[in-house]
Amino acid sequence: MDLKKITVDGVQLAVRDQGSGEAVLLVHGFPLDHTMWRQQWEPLSARYRVIIPDLRGFGQSEVTAGTVTMAQFADDLAKLLDALRVPTVTYCGLSMGGYIGWEFWRRHRPRVSRMILCDTRAAADTEIVVRGRHWMARRVCDEGPGFVPETMLPKLFAPQTLGTPSDVVDQTRRTILTSSAEGIAAAQRGMAQRRDATAMLSSLDVPTLLIAGTHDVISPPAEIRQIADAVPEGAFIMVERSGHLPPLENPDDFNQAVLTFLSG
Ligand code: MLT
Prior knowledge:
This protein is α/β, with parallel strands linked by helices. The chain has one domain (4-263): Alpha/Beta hydrolase fold, catalytic domain (Rossmann fold), CATH 3.40.50.1820. 43% of the residues lie in helices and 18% in strands. Strands 1-2-4-3-5-6-7-8 form an 8-stranded mixed beta sheet, sandwiched between helices. The longest helix is centred in the middle third of the chain and has 17 residues, at 127-143. The protein starts with a strand and ends with a helix. The structure holds D-malate (MLT). Residues 29-30, 95-96, 191, 218, 244 line the site of D-malate.
């Protein structure tokens, strides 16, 4: 299926728009693109309209240099939904897609009917993590994304995923290697300056599902459970045999959790 190309504030964004009915917006993590959701788009679009963008700077979307804040990504998404004439969505984001979700809630709350937050964090970065992000932003601009997979893949996947031959890890490596250096740097700078969302969690008054991969070392399950506990209608589920990317590592269990939540 060809991606639609929609220009938002002078930036062309690519989006997969599939199925009909209630809309579900799937927002990818860093430094990935819409193909991160390739195991979801058929099963979900059988019952829902599934909207899967490449965020600004990633995949087939245009890149803007400098810093792209989580608020900018959230506003891009709202304008994309305007262009697609979609008033409300179930917002589903993974990791950076979750950070953007907090901003989407802050800025576009009436558009959110439910939330699904996967392998993400509410806390802002520590000083050391901020330094690491600026280090990667500088290095990727100097030498391109060649070094990024080896830095990130061991943290993205559970040991079992890394040790089992499949195209999941290889395809993710290819996605990272073909990403724009400027896009990676801009998102890193944006994540480094994101706000702490912890105090906002009690305002999330829509049904909300928190999903954690059992082996996630970037956003540990215990921290994700705390988010669910702080959200009034928060539910929490763990996906076995997964690290940071359950939609790719254990799509069957992930899809079942999401479809059960959506139908409830
Ligand atoms: C992601 O998967 O989006 C990233 O791991 C988020 C981060 O770097 O904090």
